[in-house]
Amino acid sequence: MKMHDKTVLITGSTDGVGRYVARRLAEGGARVLIHGRDAARAKTLIDEIVKAGHAAPAFYQADLSSISGTRALAAAVIRDHRRLDVFVSNAGIGSQNDGPQRQVSGDGHELRFAVNYLSGFLLAHLLLPLLQTAAPSRIVNVASLGQHPIDFDDVMITKGYSGSRAYAQSKLAQIMFTVDLAEELRATGITVNSLHPATYMNTTMVRAGGIAPISTVEQGGAAILHLVEGDDVAGKSGLFFNGMNEARANSQAYDADARKRLRALSLELTGLSALARPHHG
Q1: pLDDT (tens digit, 9 = 90+) per residue, 143-202?
Q2: Kind and range of the H or E element at 119?
Q3: Is the separation of the CB atoms in 197 and 223 below 8 Å?
Q4: What is the mean pLDDT of the chain?
Q5: What is the pLDDT of residues 215-257, one digit of tens each?
Q6: pLDDT beyond 80 at 31
Q7: How many distinct helices (H) and strands (E) make up the chain?
Q8: Which residue intervals of 99-197 are DSSP H helices?
Q9: Cis ω for the linkage preceding 213 (within 30 of 0)
Q10: Rounded Cα gap, residues 36 and 58, in angstroms
Q11: In this predicted structure, what is the pLDDT of residue 274?
Q12: Judging by DSSP bridges, how do beta strands 58-61 and 86-89 pair with one another?
């Protein structure tokens, strides 16, 4: 897919791999919508891109730990744009951000589940009309090889909490949602894929976890860009990639009942259930 004049929203793009992807897409002539919590970081990225001779990205500040913050981001994008060619759901927090203890969002949801999964679930649904207008269009969910099955009796991990389990559960939820949404959007021209970009990239998130980076942001960025613009994945949907290659996710991702339970819970937690469209497939 030629990215010139295409509109792309990348959440979590003022830092880390999202920032790299935003810069590369801006270089390719895309209309880039960047998102983050930190306006100063966004400004340095915009300045870098403009200084290199490319169009300034639009910055949307939003707190994706909150359902209302996520809705406000979607509303702002819908207000400003008629179409969206690609949505890259990349915003996330690692297993150790702000310490190892269990944290909850302002809405009372386990924080990693809220930021890494629920916000992307809600945004994708709210932005579907814009993606539909631009079809063929793409949704790319930035997940991980770190995956932990969801315990539906304790989704918010009130017992036996660990940051790594919470992170891995949120990432598997993203992959389950990818499979589900791809089925729902069959024949609409919107594809949905997820990926593990690279292992322990040299990012703030990884360093905050006290982990020595083992791969570069460029490697992870290339894998994300492959799903954003690669011709070889144009018709592919509902898949999980490890880097550049198609891979198998945790078996729960392929369990239709588990996906159905997650979907019902997610619609309820995000307030979408009242608007839920019939599920095809």
Answers
A1: 999 999 999 999 999 999 999 999 999 999 999 999 999 999 999 999 999 999 988 777
A2: helix 119-134
A3: yes
A4: 94
A5: 888 999 999 999 999 999 999 999 999 999 999 999 999 999 9
A6: yes
A7: 9, 8
A8: 111-112, 119-134, 163-184
A9: no
A10: 11
A11: 64
A12: unpaired
| Distance (Å, whole) CA 143 – CA 196 | 5
**SS3 (DSSP) at 216:** coil
Contacts of 37 (CB under 8 A, 6+ apart): 14, 61, 62, 63
Strand pairing report for 7-10 and 31-36:
parallel
Tokens for 271, please give them: 């307030």
Pairing type for strands 245-247 and 240-242 reads antiparallel
CB 262 within 8 A of CB 254: no
Residue among 60, 167, 200, 254 flagged as catalytic: 167
- State yes or no: is 167 an active-site residue: yes
- In this structure, what token pair is assigned to residue 260? 């159905």
Q: Which two tokens stand for residue 62?
A: 């939003």
Residues 212 and 210: their CA atoms lie apart, in Å, by: 7
The b/e string for 80-111 (b: 16+ C-beta within 10 A; e otherwise) is ebeebbbbbbbbbbbbbbeeeeebebebebbb
Opening angle at CA 204, ends 201 and 209, nearest 5: 85
pLDDT digits (tens, 9 = 90+) for 56-106: 999 999 999 999 999 999 999 999 999 999 999 999 998 888 888 999 999
Q: What is the pLDDT of residue 149?
A: 98
Please, is 253 exposed, middle or buried when counting C-beta atoms within 10 Å of its C-beta (0-12, 13-18, 19+)? buried
Sign of the four-CA dihedral 141, 143, 145, 147: negative
d(CA 1, CA 228): 8
Beta bridge pairs of residue 190? 137
